[in-house]
Amino acid sequence: MEPANLIIHLPLNFNQVVELVSQLPYKEKQKLSELLKKETKQKTENDITLTHFASEKVLAKDWLLPEEEDAWKDL
Question: Quick one: DSSP state of residue 5?
């Protein structure tokens, strides 16, 4: 079995992960840093889209008021 296909679930808390990372050689920390940058960037882009959709429902309450229709009728 290739190591890339091996999945191990270890119940670690945040402090334990930090301790493990502190023991890594510098180059491995750099690799981990790049991986985390990619993961957090991807998540952030997805979160922005989800926030947009969540906000739409809240804003639609105001958009659908007769006062709003009146305010925008000349545009």
Answer: G
CB of 63 closer than 8 Å to CB of 56: no
| Whether 68 contacts 62, CB under 8 Å | yes
> Residue 26 in 3-state DSSP?
helix
Mind giving me the DSSP string for 38-58? HHHHHHHHHHHHHHHHHHHHH
In Å, how far are 1, 50, 65, 75 from 6, measured between CA atoms? 7, 32, 56, 60
For residues 4 and 57, what is the distance between their CA atoms, to the nearest angstrom?
42
Sequential pLDDT tens for the chain (75 residues) = 455 678 888 898 999 999 999 999 999 999 999 998 888 776 656 666 667 777 777 777 777 888 888 888 888
| φ/ψ (deg, to 5) at 13 | -90, 175
